[in-house]
Known about the structure:
Layout: E1 17-21, H1 28-32, E2 39-43, H2 45-61, E3 67-70, H3 77-89, E4 96-101, H4 103-116, E5 120-124, E6 136-140, E7 146-151, E8 158-162, H5 163-166, H6 171-188, H7 204-229, H8 235-255, H9 259-267, H10 278-292, H11 297-309, H12 316-319, H13 326-336, H14 352-375
Parallel strand pairs: 1-8, 2-3, 2-4, 4-5, 5-8
Antiparallel strand pairs: 6-7
The structure holds zinc ion.
Zinc ion is lined by residues 129-130, 180, 261, 278, 282.
Amino acid sequence: MxxxxxxxxxxxxxxxxxxxxxxxxxxxxRYLSPLGQRPLVVVDNIVFEIAGKTLLxxxxxxxxxxxxxxxTGEASLQEIGRLADIAKSSNPPCDFIIxxxxxxxxxxxKQIATDLHLPVAVLxxxxxxxxxxxxxxxxxxxEGEFHKYSFFEKNPxxxxxxxxxxxxxxxxxxxxxxxxxxxxNVEAREVRNSPNFGKxxxxxxxxxICSKCEEILFQYGQQALEANKAQALTPAFEAVVEANxxxxxxxxxxGGLAAAHAIHDGLTSLPELHHLMHGEKVNFGTVCxxxxxxxxxxxxxxxxxxxxxxxxxxxxxxxxxxxxxxxDLRKVARLAxxxxxxxxxxxxxxxxxxAYGLLKAADAVGREYLARTSKA
Length: 376
Ligand SMILES: [Zn+2]
């Protein structure tokens, strides 16, 4: 049931500063030095080669004293504890945290900063999720299953995006980010009477941000993907990076999530889908949400067209489910309807049978769309 506590305040929250551009990493010290002088830089080995060396040398040149914390790949409590120990045992101890990498690096770093009561700067190297700006982390088990949402008092102090690095990532990352960002307005507009992640109702600015996010994706999503494939920094690419990172981040946090993300959380329980990115699973959830919202056929087609044009999955087959077992779908539906799930922000009657039906219906709608458009 939405808003059981009858909250009447509106709340909007965001990072203190957002920086985006093709030389942001080289100029990072200018923006990061107010946070401290001895950052723990959480970065995995691959990203270290692509961007970590540039960042560390830029920080050192500016007189800062960074410590590298090698991230091993899972946003789990174990990994968070291990990296926090590195920050504490550095001599003198680190005085702020830098996350350099993708969603899991970022979620891990935000939790470390919270546990150690330190500021955090988030430097995403892909535009694949809307995690960077938010005051929450999604934590996983060491095996990669959804564990829980972790909520923080504060948003990251700084989010800094170097688009010359982001454009080098495979286009699949940008597409996944488009999937995550496309869910933002689809979900937020259904939960306006339900408290958001700031435990308040959405303000007019968050409604406007969600709608602008969607507008950019429809206008420039496909164009940006093509630019990414060519590793070309274009205005369309910059716009979609901003939509995926800033607009979607502010939009979902101060707007609210609903069925698409609850279905995503259920889908993480299927080992066959562990190869998928967050936004890819969310995208299938968005089709479910659109069906639950009784979206007219013409509008639904518009969404499916964008999804398919950027290679986002709209059927079980495209998700990678070779064999669709009924007990798996039941499990996904059950988890999507767990107590505390974002699906309960919706003001419609939902139970596990409804969620199960949505999964099957979304696949059917996706297959029908693909069959119809491939003939044309
Ligand atoms: Zn998401």
